[in-house]
Design goal:
Strand content of chain B: 5-15%
Structural class of chain A: alpha+beta
Largest interface: A-B, 54 and 34 residues
Shape of chain A: globular
Number of helices of chain B: 5
Strand order of the largest sheet of chain A: 8-10-6-17-14-15-16
Number of strands of chain A: 28
Radius of gyration of chain A: 27 Å
Shape of chain B: globular
Distance between the termini of chain A: 64 Å
Distance between the termini of chain B: 24 Å
Strand content of chain A: 15-25%
Structural class of chain B: mainly alpha
Number of helices of chain A: 26
Helix content of chain A: 25-40%
Oligomer: heterodimer
Chain lengths: 888, 117
């Protein structure tokens, strides 16, 4: 121990520092300064913990506390508060640089140091200063914008008044600051790990290190004797079904008989401190008997393959699709290409690791069973509440969504909540479960790997005639959203195109891989990769320009998708026309490249369905005493800007100022069960339900002349109204033909990538991304472009770098998380075709943004060096191998 | 099931004829759509579960479920049910085969929270 004296945000503290104590923990645990975050297991990889020490930006997870005697520390809280923010905090809010907000405090402190030393930094200097600060949401575009704006504000080149949207600018189509963004900028927004609960137990979990084995015995005797240990739990201690059923009840909270993938939970230890719990967990002895590991769908479909689940076939779902007669059309076509495409298992990579806390809320009525409150990162709180109630056998429970540091589909299912709540029930104590990044990667769902055998054909005039896609999906060990991925892939199989004859066969197969679930797009990005690369191959074979080939084959209003459903709106031709001059410019510029670095241009389209067959939502609104309106809807906001959407839509419908709209969206005990924040459905489904409720309220106000809750009550009318949104087209696809209902709305984009390939190293560098998008009328331009920029960055990662390999991918470095050094300029072209059934004509955009990206990148690589990489990710070694094999 | 169910695949909903009307259900037998419920449908589903005669006390519970949903847009917890009906949990659970969720809530036509499509 060493006694030190340091100043934090202007206040002097005297501290006894141990030799291993780091500044981050002192700030968070000792001073409750929660702005600095922990993501990378204290490896200095993420920058979320950046603070200022003696004028320098440092990663506080690496700084030993005992070395700070006499130092001056400034955290994000020391720069400004929501009532009195720093201009840098204003700049981040105003440019839309804050989405989930988990990385924001670290970025803002790093920017403070940058601008103190370089008041007018160029882009290279900005990238250098922020190269150790990771962001998954923004693609870094708006972060660079924020630094530039902060620089101008600090130098007096502009003022807040000049750059802040005004009420008179209107509610729609204006980048009003997100309601939640200033709290995130100032470090006061509480994420799950920021919840401090006195006397809470901490837990550590023992997970399988092998992919498939029988559990023969568990010996926890040594753990039980260790200091601070409250106990050990196994499956036998779970009160309920011990099955977390999203769609199928196959995933245990704790495994009882066998483990099915690397990371399956077997036992947990609970103790007074996390160190004690982890020490105890390490002593739990588990005897396993190895079983054959099924590493691929092909292996799992073998005649002698063992079953992953004794009561289920490994082929757990199959859905064909047949439109017309593809075999006959193929035989008669002038040009046919055939190829196998594979996409990788991938981690969605939210910056915030998994986390749950659970505590007991004192109940007023003693007759009720104790009331458990679970705080976590859910994007579907009502469904997750039901899952936990059944699995754990405890009914009186509330789920509260904390601020959520990104999710990108990963939180469609229950993760750490099951273990945390189970421990709280078993030990009858509050529990915190804050796993490491490595453990979070082990426990969470992944993007499914697809194996796709494709044929695409056209006639002599270059008109598409037939498309075949037989695809195998690696389900991994557990079902989660299972067949929905296959379903969505089939619903969007023909992409943006008119293809008269289609034959497909989607198979979903249990294996001992990490279990797959939602991941931004969930199925369509994989099949669209195959389709759009096949389009490029076919254009190549026909000797046609790939842009014109696509343009000539676009679906037209009145024609049908692969489901057989005709479309009533399809604004893709307008998007391609908007992109055409950019394409022609890019092709001219790329043609000038030569030598070692070859430039290429690639395009791809995407048409993404929103509001699936049978989808429904519900939301409640209430007139307040001051004439404002409260919204009660479980509309999770892990960073997309759903708070903006609900606020601006409501203000527009009701003619209210934005600050008169109050949102209640995070707790199961005060929200309507509006459905998941998934499938890009929040704006379209929940927005529509809210608008329906508002119209009922407006009608009552108009009828009575009431302007406030009191006046409406006096007129004997309700102040609260329940709104619904139900899709008219419901029911499943035909099980034999895959023909039938489809999405009620679509969002469209055409994306163009300009890149450069280093022919000596195989490295690919994206130079620019241009996206033409039509998501209907824009509610908040910063939110729309922010989704596109972040999604494109994620799509480039999917195309070139990222892959989750069980047992090898353990942190952000092994994951190849994109840094600001990897970021690229982006241009967004917006078209606003109103959607007749959308709320005020709008629809969603959150997943669209990466559907065309990976194929656009791969097509650009082909344009640059003449080789197709059909197996994602297109790493340098694959590019070099393709060049060497003479496929050019 | 009585043979009127339709073969289906995928995420649902699944259809069957109840009280003379083609009605959508989820895989747990809960109404897909709150508005497709009727008193006749509740009687028919109750009879299937062995409850041939819905008494006033059953209707009191069913009405509470539906009024709660109409106001809140979600299903009540047991504590809400107890307070809203004046019945003890034991009394409530005895009233409906299958208990409160799979029995009473299902007969009342409250949909499960949606998953994804």
């Amino acid at each position: 121990m060493k006694k030190i004296s340091l100043e934090v945000n202007g206040i002097r503290h005297e501290v006894l520092a141990g030799k291993d104590d780091v500044l981050l923990d002192y700030l968070r645990d000792g001073l409750d300064l929660i702005g600095a975050k922990q993501s990378c297991d204290r490896k200095g990889q993420c920058g979320a913990c950046t603070v200022i020490v003696d004028g320098k930006a440092v990663r506080s997870c690496l700084i030993k506390l005992m070395n700070l005697d006499g130092s001056k520390v400034i955290t994000v809280e020391g720069l400004g508060t929501p009532d009195n923010p720093h201009l840098i905090q204003h700049a981040f809010v105003l440019t839309g640089a804050i989405q989930c907000g988990f990385c924001t405090p670290g970025l803002i402190t790093a920017v403070k140091v940058l601008l103190d030393n370089a008041p007018d930094p160029g882009e290279d200097l900005i990238k250098k200063a922020l190269q150790r600060n990771l962001c998954r949401c923004t693609g870094y575009v708006k972060i660079i914008d924020a630094v530039k704006l902060a620089s101008r504000l600090l130098r007096g080149e502009t003022t807040l008044e000049e750059v802040t949207p005004k009420a008179s600018d209107g509610n729609m189509g204006v980048s009003h600051p997100r309601p939640s963004s200033m709290a995130k900028a100032c470090g006061t927004a509480r994420f799950t790990a920021d919840y401090k609960i006195p006397d809470a137990l901490e837990i550590a979990v023992v997970r399988s290190e092998v992919p498939h084995a029988l559990i023969k015995s568990i010996d926890a005797s040594a753990a039980l004797a260790m200091p601070g240990v409250a106990g050990v739990m196994t499956a036998a201690d779970i009160r309920g079904t011990n099955r977390l059923k999203y769609l199928e009840a196959d995933r245990p909270v704790l495994c009882s008989d066998k483990v099915r993938y690397i990371g399956d939970p077997i036992a947990l230890a609970a103790a007074a401190t996390k160190d004690q719990a982890e020490a105890a967990a390490r002593t739990i002895r588990i005897e396993l008997e190895a079983l054959p590991a099924l590493e691929s769908p092909e292996q799992a479909l073998g005649d002698d393959a063992v079953r992953v689940h004794a009561d289920r076939e490994n082929l757990c779902y199959r859905q064909p699709q047949v439109k017309g007669d593809a075999d006959a059309a193929l035989a008669e076509s002038a040009a046919v290409i055939q190829a196998r495409f594979t996409t990788q298992t991938n981690h969605q990579a939210p910056l915030e690791p998994e986390a749950t806390v659970a505590y007991w809320h004192e109940e007023e009525d003693e007759e009720d069973e104790p009331h458990l409150v679970v705080v976590g990162r859910s994007i579907n709180i009502h469904h997750h509440l039901g899952m936990l109630q059944a699995a754990l056998g405890w009914e009186n429970m509330t789920y509260e969504e904390a601020y959520c540091g990104g999710q990108f589909g990963i939180k469609l299912d229950v993760m750490s909540e099951g273990l945390c709540a189970a421990a709280a029930i078993h030990f009858k104590k509050a529990v915190r479960y804050i796993p490491s990044l490595h453990e979070s990667m082990l426990m969470t769902s992944k993007r499914h790997a697809f194996h796709m055998d494709v044929k695409l054909a056209a006639d002599r005039q270059g008109k598409l005639t037939a498309y075949c896609n037989d695809f195998l999906v690696d389900k991994g060990a557990y079902y989660s959203m299972g067949h929905v991925v296959v379903y969505r892939a089939l619903l969007m199989l023909s992409g943006s195109y008119q293809i008269p004859h289609v034959k497909a066969d989607g198979k979903l197969v249990y294996t001992n891989s990490p279990w797959g679930s939602a991941a931004r797009g969930a199925g369509p990005p994989q099949v669209n990769f195959a389709l759009e690369c096949a389009m490029e191959m076919l254009a190549d074979k026909l000797g046609m320009d790939p842009f014109e080939f696509r343009f000539n084959n676009l679906l037209q209003v009145g024609e049908s998708k692969s489901t057989g459903r005709t479309v009533t709106e399809w604004p893709v031709p307008g998007l391609m026309e908007a992109l055409r001059p950019h394409y022609e410019r890019a092709k001219r510029e790329a043609a000038a490249s030569d030598g070692r670095y070859k430039r290429g241009v690639g395009i791809a389209t995407g048409s993404f369905g929103i509001g699936g067959p049978g989808d429904a939502s519900v939301a409640a609104v209430e007139l307040d005493e001051d004439g404002g309106v409260s919204i009660f809807a479980a509309a999770a906001d892990p960073g997309e800007g759903n708070d903006s959407m609900l606020t601006q839509l409501t203000a527009e419908v009701m003619g209210l100022p934005l600050d008169k709209v109050r949102l209640h969206t995070r707790r199961t005990d005060d929200t309507a069960a509006s459905g998941p924040a998934a499938g890009s459905r929040i704006t379209y489904m929940i927005g529509n339900a809210v608008v329906d409720a508002l119209h009922q309220l407006k009608a009552a106000m108009a009828e009575t002349g009431a302007q406030t809750a009191g006046e409406l009550k006096a007129a004997e009318k309700p102040v609260r109204y329940l709104g619904r949104k139900k899709n008219e087209d419901s029911g499943p696809l035909d099980p034999k033909t895959g023909q039938g209902p489809s999405f009620e709305s679509q969002v469209h984009a055409v994306q163009m990538v300009e890149l450069e390939v280093d022919t000596e190293t195989g490295e690919v560098k994206v130079l620019k991304m241009t996206t033409a998008v039509d998501a209907g009328p824009v509610i908040n331009p910063n939110n729309l472009t922010g989704q596109l920029e972040g999604g494109a960055d994620m799509g480039v990662g999917l195309a070139l770098r990222e892959q989750y390999i069980a047992g090898e991918t353990k942190d952000w470095r092994t994951f190849k998380f994109p840094t600001i050094r990897d970021s690229f300029p982006q241009e967004v072209i917006i078209r606003e075709t109103p959607r007749p059934k959308g709320p005020l004509g709008c629809t969603g955009v959150g997943e669209m943004c990466l559907v065309p990206t990976a194929p656009a990148v791969i097509n650009a690589v082909k344009d640059a060096v003449g080789v197709f990489i059909c197996d994602l990710p297109a790493t340098p070694d694959k590019v070099l191998a393709a060049l060497a094999s003479g496929k050019a | 099931m009585d043979g009127t169910e339709e073969q289906a695949s995928g995420p649902g909903p699944f259809f069957r004829v109840v009280a003379g009307r083609r009605t959508a259900f989820d895989d747990e037998g809960f109404f897909w759509d709150y508005d497709e419920w009727s008193e006749d449908a509740a009687r028919e589903l109750a009879a299937e579960s062995g409850l041939d005669n819905l008494q006033d006390v059953h209707w009191k519970v069913i009405r509470f479920f539906r009024e709660y949903y109409e106001f809140h847009g979600r299903a009540p917890l047991n504590r809400d049910l107890r307070q809203g009906t004046g019945l003890s949990l034991l009394e409530l659970q005895k009233l409906f085969p299958g208990g409160l969720k799979d029995g009473a809530r299902r007969l009342s036509g409250l949909p499960n929270p949606k998953t994804c499509n």
